[in-house]
Amino acid sequence: MAAVAPGASVEIRIPPFAAVQCIEGPRHTRGTPPNVVETDPRTWLLLVTGMVSLAEAKGTGALTLSGSRAGEIDHWLPLFDVG
């Protein structure tokens, strides 16, 4: 995600495997960032392959968005076409 949406205004967390900052805008340097997306590894793989939408994942509780810009990751999803 950081390669296609460089920046540091949104942090994507996929515990325990990754935390990536992406999307241009105000940079966060200390503490908890203001814009966070957090999900489990399986849901992240479903999102990046287009097998589930951001709205679906959020609706089922498999993904949490906090901050006014966290939902902007939807613009770059899916990352891969597996069709």
Short description:
By secondary structure, the chain is of the alpha+beta class.
Strand content: 15-25%
**DSSP helix count?**
2
Low-confidence stretches: none
Largest sheet: 4 strands, mixed
- The residue fraction in helices comes out at 10-25%
Order of secondary-structure elements: EEEHHE
**Distance N to C terminus:** 20 Å
Q: Return the structural class.
A: alpha+beta
Overall geometry: globular
Mean pLDDT: 94
Radius of gyration: 12 Å
InterPro entries: SCP_3 (IPR041629)
Pfam family, one: SCP_3
Protein name: Bacterial SCP orthologue domain-containing protein
Model description:
- The protein is α+β, with helices and mostly antiparallel strands and 83 residues long.
- It has a domain at 12-18 and 37-82: 2-Layer Sandwich (Nonspecific Lipid-transfer Protein, Chain A), CATH 3.30.1050.
- It has helices at residues 41-48, 54-60; strands at residues 10-14, 18-22, 36-39, 63-66.
- The protein has a 4-stranded mixed β-sheet.
- The mean pLDDT is 94.
- Residues 1-79 form the Bacterial SCP orthologue domain.
Provide keyphrases for this structure.
single chain, 83 residues, alpha+beta, Nonspecific Lipid-transfer Protein, Chain A, 4-stranded mixed β-sheet, 2 helices, 4 strands, 18% helix
Secondary-structure map with pairings?
Elements: E1 10-14, E2 18-22, E3 36-39, H1 41-48, H2 54-60, E4 63-66
